[in-house]
Amino acid sequence: MDANTETKRKRIGTRCVHAGELRGLYGAPHSPIFNSTTFAFADTRSLLEVVDGIKKGPLYTRYGMNPTIVSLEEKLAALEGAESALVFCSGMAAESAVLLGSGARRVVCLGDAYGGTLELLAVNLSQLGIQTAFLKGDDFEGLQSEINQGASLVFLESPTNPTLEIIDIKKVAAIAHAGGASVVVDNTFATPINQSPLALGADLVVHSATKYLGGHSDITAGAVMGDEQRIAPLRLWRKNLGSVPAPETCALLSRSIKTLHVRVDWQNRSAQAIAEAMEVHPAVRRVLYPGLPSFTGYALAVSQMRGMGGMLTLDLFAEDASPFVDRLELFLIAPSLGGAESLVTQPVTTTHHGLSEVERARRGITGSMVRFSIGLEDPQDLIEDLRSALEAVGRK
Ligand code: PLP
Q1: Ligand 1 pocket: which of 96, 120, 165, 211 to mutate (most atoms <8 Å of CB)?
Q2: Among the four residues 53, 290, 328, 335, which has the most C-beta atoms within 10 Å?
Q3: Tell me, what's the pLDDT at 332?
Q4: Domain endpoint, select from 257, 274, 297
Q5: How far apart are CA 311 and CA 323, in angstroms?
Q6: d(Cα 162, Cα 370) in Å, to the nearest integer?
Q7: Could you give the 3-state DSSP secondary structure of residue 370?
Q8: 286 and 237 assigned to the same domain
Q9: What is the CATH number for 155?
């Protein structure tokens, strides 16, 4: 058994540190960065062996055939317990390849999703004749009926963005598979530390690696993980869409993943402490956080997640939450998540800004909602910042 296969059997923290690393070159603990766009061969025969897939090896960086990229992909596959992984230049590039590459003409999007995903499905893919049914996360009858009418791909996030709804991945996979459809789960919010969608029955996992995997708000990347049989066709899509990331980005991402388990563990504990403190605050109508027993999806979250994540949403009594947001000092007002710095965003001004009032109302997204990405600061300082900004909007 080679060292990488051995590492894939270890616990997740060990996989974060060791999986995929190219060891053996001068004893360097971290894989070197191969910036070359192309790779030379001793003779034509050796070139053809790689071109024809008889031998694995570096060839051309846009094809993903570059040792730094392949090393990262080994690590990404190990994180999700997958056979294979592909890295992309953004989360949206990964999603586009999956949705285009599936060949599906009818898609079901279950529950809420990132605004860009909704736009891709509703605008871009519909221009290509790919129809999407947007259903509630627990509308299993609707799902069954869509599958009966030929839907062949089900896309979902869990927890969802921004209401943190938990969707029953096992149940969705059972319904989809019985009707011959595939299930793709965006695991960005949960991270591979907290949730393993493939083990719950999903066929592919996608990530915006820009978020927790990158973890420092300085990398834009995406990833797809699954069986080689499903990943292989997507490799061709990535090659011809040209959506491979640069080797420097891949090296930075590999470096970040080495601390993923430590960061996520801290963020899980911090978010839980903040959620508990906010739940009893008189200016807060609801705290949407899967780790609170009062949260609708709590029991399901406990059954399918190992940790509850660093994302939480507050629903204030105040109709407009912007004075509160503007008073926060430690939280940066920015539309992303998963970094070392805590971020705050109002879904109505960022992620879901492009949706109509009616559509937002249907999804339960209001101006009184504020979404937080809890970073790596001391949670006590964050709680103090939240309490002092809440003074601005007053009590019930
Ligand atoms: N999926 C989720 C859950 C996201 O939050 C985002 C971006 O915010 C994306 C996908 C898209 O990722 P990227 O910005 O890396 O293209």
Answers
A1: 211
A2: 290
A3: 97
A4: 257
A5: 21
A6: 9
A7: strand
A8: no
A9: 3.40.640.10
Domain with 365, as residue range(s), is 260-394
Q: Fill in the DSSP letter of residue 211.
A: T
**Helices 247-257 and 67-79 sit at what angle, rounded to 10 degrees?**
30
Q: Which residue has the tokens 């060949």?
A: 103
Cα–Cα distance for residue pair 45/158, rounded to 1 Å: 48
CATH number where 350 lies: 3.90.1150.10
**Same structural domain, 313 and 382:** yes
The residue whose CA is least distant from atom 5 of ligand 1 is 114
**What per-residue confidence (pLDDT) applies to 311?**
98
- Cα-to-centroid distance, 211 and ligand 1 (Å): 8
The CA dihedral of 132, 135, 140, 146, to the nearest 10 degrees, is -30
CA nearest to 184, candidates 127, 231, 251, 247:
231
Residues annotated as catalytic are 62, 114, 186, 211
Pair (251, 362) in one structural domain: no
pTM for the model = 0.96
Q: Ligand 1 centroid vs 353 CA: distance in angstroms?
A: 15
Mean pLDDT check: name the lowest of 220-229, 295-304, 325-334, 362-371. 362-371
> Would you state the structure tokens that stand for residue 97, as one six-digit string?
């390849």
